[in-house]
Design a protein that fits this description.
WH-like_DNA-bd_sf (chains A, B), CP_lyase_PhnF (chains A, B), alpha+beta, GntR family phosphonate transport system transcriptional regulator (chains A, B), Bact_HTH_transcr_reg (chains A, B), DNA-binding, homodimer, 10 strands, 252 residues, 9 helices, globular
DNA sequence: AGTGATTTGTTCGTATGTATG
DNA sequence: CCATACATACGAACAAATCAC
């Protein structure tokens, strides 16, 4: 039994190729080997290769052109913004290995902007947790997260022990939560951000500001993350809303 | 009757202040006049001022602090990404005057990426429409839009005549459409983009790639827009999904 | 303009493993 | 243990698009 959640061979093929693309071993615009060659390389049938490639295509990693070949599209890491966004799941979906590193933790009074986002009075104590996110050893974000101390006493310790946010929140009686709002903007990095992201100072970073709320609508977390602009891409997918509309229309 | 969609007095106040913030006449961190002064300036009651400011707060343009005052937050133009996103409405909501300028129009065979987004065969003719978007005379985006010729013959001419996209689509029997997907990424501008956005070459731009589909799910438009990174901010608001959840929970 | 080589797209058939009841 | 359903995987043949000559 391996540690990876791979069942079929096609998933293994998908992960292998995705990994090569996302780590840059296969660069954009280059052509993938022919199906026949991939069959040989992985020792599987054509169905298996085609299924893997079909998935890579739907993930936007490759572009298939009949009669020409299959080409690598863009190695940017894709970060989906839905109300159900979970950081590590987003990465696992892309066949990348997420890893979080604690950098600093402190208890501070809420600043004006944090207090507003969490709907707390100004100065109310919050845990300020600074972390760095890695995917396959490569730094991809640097985040400042804030949690209300009064509601989650001891949160910092639980986090330090390595448990995931979802898990810890569950222990405080929050089985589920949703992403209420995400703001995205661009600016130049601070020296500290550039250092942690292994980025040069003249490369722009994307800033995402997010508020999570529990199922009653009460804010439980606010965070500002900084991402290397050249290595990520955000996407908003409204497919589920479209499906709702289609289902509704078919009633008539 | 004015050309602006303002109904109540509070909307007028909101628009006026929002306009000052978004055009930079009021810069971030500066303090707004006291409610009493605003009442005098606009010749309205306190209720009206408070309602306008409450809206500005929920839009993230100002930050209200009890006992201290109201402060301008960030002058970035906010562009909301929902399945119902409409360009000019987005701007009108913020009290800005949208204006579109045609730059180039041509009929070309679909490139690989355009064909994929519109789910057309490669080489299928599409209208390629290049435009520049302005808000209050200030350039805020530069877009390349693509529409299938076969489905919308004469679209380019209708657009040239100045009609809005929604209106033209309605004439082709598409009363409504939704935004299927939006991708957001950052890169440096091309010289042409920098020129049209009145931006220097070392300032990053945000690129948004969008696919609109009709109510049957068929793609009808694809566009790639470039925005000056320092002047805009994108936001994803899941409030409506939260309301759905709250309503569902209250059933029990 | 045409032909053949290359590459992906589609469809048929068959076999095996796994979960369900 | 058996029947059923489903996912997975291999093989093969032909269709369609692209490209080089």
């Amino acid at each position: 039994m391996t540690s990876k959640p791979s069942h079929g061979q096609w998933q293994q093929v998908e992960e292998d190729i995705a990994h090569d693309i996302l780590t840059g071993r296969l660069s954009p615009k280059t052509q993938l080997p022919r199906e026949a060659d991939l069959m040989e390389r992985f020792g599987v049938g054509r169905h298996t290769i085609r299924r893997a490639i079909s998935r890579l295509q739907s993930r936007g990693l490759v572009q298939v052109e009949q009669g020409r070949g299959t080409f690598v599209r863009d190695g940017r890491l894709e970060y989906r913004l839905s109300e159900r966004t979970r950081f590590s799941q987003n990465l696992l979906d892309q066949g990348r290995e997420p890893f979080g590193q604690a950098i600093r933790e402190e208890e501070i009074p809420a600043s004006a902007s944090v207090a507003e986002a969490l709907r707390l009075p100004r100065g109310e104590p919050v845990y300020h947790i600074v972390r760095r996110g890695l995917a396959d050893e490569e730094p991809i974000n640097f985040s400042n997260a804030y949690y209300p101390v009064r509601r989650f006493p001891g949160f910092d310790k639980a986090r330090r022990d390595g448990r995931s946010v979802s898990l810890i929140l569950a222990e405080y009686g929050i089985p589920d939560y949703i992403r209420l709002r995400t703001d995205i903007l661009v600016r130049m990095p601070t020296p500290e951000e550039a250092r942690h992201l292994d980025l040069s100072l003249d490369k722009p970073v994307i800033v995402s500001k997010k508020v999570d709320v529990d199922m009653k609508g009460t804010p439980i977390a606010y965070s500002e993350s900084v991402w290397p602009g050249e290595r990520v891409q955000f996407s908003v997918d409204n497919t589920s809303q479209l499906l709702d509309v289609l289902a509704r229309n078919s009633d008539f």
